[in-house]
Structure formats: C-alpha cells, structure tokens
UniProtKB/TrEMBL annotation:
<dbReference type="InterPro" id="IPR036291">
    <property type="entry name" value="NAD(P)-bd_dom_sf"/>
</dbReference>
<keyword id="KW-0520">NAD</keyword>
<feature type="domain" description="D-isomer specific 2-hydroxyacid dehydrogenase catalytic">
    <location>
        <begin position="17"/>
        <end position="309"/>
    </location>
</feature>
<dbReference type="Pfam" id="PF00389">
    <property type="entry name" value="2-Hacid_dh"/>
</dbReference>
<comment type="similarity">
    <text>Belongs to the D-isomer specific 2-hydroxyacid dehydrogenase family.</text>
</comment>
<dbReference type="InterPro" id="IPR006140">
    <property type="entry name" value="D-isomer_DH_NAD-bd"/>
</dbReference>
<keyword id="KW-0560">Oxidoreductase</keyword>
<dbReference type="InterPro" id="IPR006139">
    <property type="entry name" value="D-isomer_2_OHA_DH_cat_dom"/>
</dbReference>
<dbReference type="InterPro" id="IPR050418">
    <property type="entry name" value="D-iso_2-hydroxyacid_DH_PdxB"/>
</dbReference>
<protein>
    <submittedName>
        <fullName>D-2-hydroxyacid dehydrogenase</fullName>
    </submittedName>
</protein>
<dbReference type="Pfam" id="PF02826">
    <property type="entry name" value="2-Hacid_dh_C"/>
</dbReference>
<feature type="domain" description="D-isomer specific 2-hydroxyacid dehydrogenase NAD-binding">
    <location>
        <begin position="108"/>
        <end position="286"/>
    </location>
</feature>
<dbReference type="InterPro" id="IPR029753">
    <property type="entry name" value="D-isomer_DH_CS"/>
</dbReference>
C-alpha cells in the first residue's frame, strides 16, 4: 500500500509524533505543498491520498487508477469532488472534533481582547504613551466588563458548547440560537432575538448555501451598537464588505475574526484596510495548537486503520 500526503506544510509535521502514520502503510511520499499542475502525477500511484487543502476534482479522481481512499486532514470536504469519489466507490474520510479546546480558548482570547482592549493598551506602553501620561494609568479605550452580559452563540455543536461553558465561567448569560433546521429546541431563542439582545455574538456553525453571508448589513444593523461579533467558524458566513462598512460607521463596537472567505486574503481585502476601528484578525490559527494538530493527525491514522480493517 502506497500513500501520499500532499500538503504537510499545513500541519508542521516536524512538531508531531508521526510514527503511527508512518507505520500504517508500507510506503509514504510526503510533500510540503502541491500545486494544481503537480497533483495528478503525485497521486498517480497512490492507494491512499491525504490532503488538507489540495483540491481533488473529478478529473483527478477519475484518472488515479490505484486510488482507494481519500483522507481529508480537516473537517471540511469542500475541496473533494464527493460525487466523483462515490462513483468510483472511493471513501472520503474527514476528522471532526479535534479543535475543540484550542478553538474555544482562541475564541475567548479574541473576546477578551475586544472587551479589555489590552492589545491596544500594551502597544501604547511600548510606544511610550504610558510614560507620557499625566496620571498613573491610561483611559483611552473603553473596556467592557463581561459579567452579566449576553453571549449569543450561533451553532451549538461541540465548539459552541465549549465556548458557552467558558462564557458562563466569566459570568455571562448564554443565548443559543434555534437550530437552522427549523426544529424548536427548549432553552433556545429565535435568531432575531439573539441578534438584538446579545452583547457578543460568536459564530460556530458550518457554512452552507443557506447561511452564506448571513451576517449582512441587516444582521449588523439589528445588533446593539455596543456589541461585538466574533467569527472562528467560516469566513463565508460574513459579508465582509458590509462588516467593514459597519465598523467604520460605528454600527457595532468591534469584531474579531480568525477566518476570511478567501485564505490567504488578497492585499486589497476590504477588512485589511488600515482605517477600520476595533477589528482584530488572526490568520486562521485558532486550531493550530500542537495538541490539536496531533489529534487531527491521529484521527487521519484512525480513519486509515478502520478502512484497512473493514
């Protein structure tokens, strides 16, 4: 059995225990990255292909004669032509649940930065502004005390639940949006009420055709002017031009994002403009703790083992 891992650079394998992966098949080819014009050749003789973000389209799948299993080293499978794989009876296996604690702590780090503005105060200290202060402290940026505030969570799977637990530990009141399926569940509120009542809204739902750009101008206008938006889910959930405009006009008080619709973003992305106030963007690294990446790699190995044993 031959395997190929097409984009190991996305995992920084040198920091991880790869012994189980190396033993699960007879032979592996590891590539740090793979361009579209390299993919066909690299999967040509492979029985098992691991990809994080490299696209496997219909033509590639149909013209890989030995391909028997596709492992996505991520949760999303949007880079795989699932219909083409199904026609050739090739299973496509992903890994879920590996980011939980890492993503939840990153979400809270973004929330605390928005609420305390510590990153701006710390920058002012380095820039000498504290040394120039006429009093013992600085009071330049407003700070929100989170205890007693409403944390609205859209998407209440494992990640949403973990964030809710951390919010409760800070003394926040948790509002959970009703399921997008329309099924009413006890203890949840209608999306419209969550949007209008929340002091912080955190997104943890998958991206679908139905909720693409759900955070649009109308959504933002319905939020409290003092509210924050956090997105550690998928960039496509947010109309990014509308968010940039809302922040510039003070429609909401701030936003923190770990994801954008296009990654890496172009230099002229509307949210990368220098004149947008109280916006924090991190480069899709809520999941990158060593522990999280090890769980992901172990999940891939487990998927291969289960397939071999089937």
């Amino acid at each position: 059995m031959r395997g190929v891992f097409l984009d190991t650079l996305t995992m920084k394998l040198e920091e991880l225990d790869t012994s189980a992966l190396e033993k699960v098949l007879d032979h592996w080819d590891f590539f740090e990255s793979t361009t579209p014009d390299q993919t066909a050749e690299r999967i040509q003789n492979a029985d098992v292909v691991i990809t994080n973000k490299v696209v496997l389209d219909r033509a590639l799948i149909e013209n890989a004669p030995n391909l028997k299993l596709i492992c996505v080293c991520a949760t999303g499978t949007n880079n795989i032509d699932l219909d083409a794989a199904a026609r050739k009876n090739i299973p496509v296996k992903n890994v879920s649940g590996y980011t939980g604690s890492s993503l939840a702590q990153h979400t809270m780090a973004l929330l605390l930065a928005l609420a305390t503005r510590w990153h701006q105060y710390a920058a002012d200290v380095k820039n000498g502004r504290w040394s120039q202060s006429p009093i013992f402290c600085r009071l330049d940026y407003p700070v929100m005390e989170l205890a007693g505030k409403n944390l609205g969570i859209i998407g209440y799977g494992d990640l949403g639940r973990k964030v809710a637990g951390l919010g409760e530990a800070l003394g926040m009141n948790i509002l959970i949006a009703q399921s997008s399926t329309g099924e009413e569940k006890p203890g949840r509120v209608a999306l419209e009420k969550l949007v209008s009542d929340s002091d912080v809204i955190s997104l943890h739902c998958p991206l679908t055709a139905q909720n693409s750009k759900m955070v649009n101008s109308e959504f933002l206008a319905a939020m409290k002017q003092s509210a924050f938006l956090i997105n550690t889910a998928r960039g496509g959930l947010v109309d990014e031009t509308a968010l940039a405009d809302a922040l510039k006009r003070g429609v909401i008080a701030g936003a923190a994002l770990d994801v954008l619709a296009v990654e890496p973003p172009p230099a002229d992305h509307p949210l990368l403009a220098q004149d947008i106030p109280n916006l924090i963007i991190t480069p899709h690294n809520a999941w990158i703790s060593r522990e999280s990446r090890q769980r992901l790699l172990d999940g891939v190995v487990n998927n291969i083992r289960q397939w071999l044993d089937a």
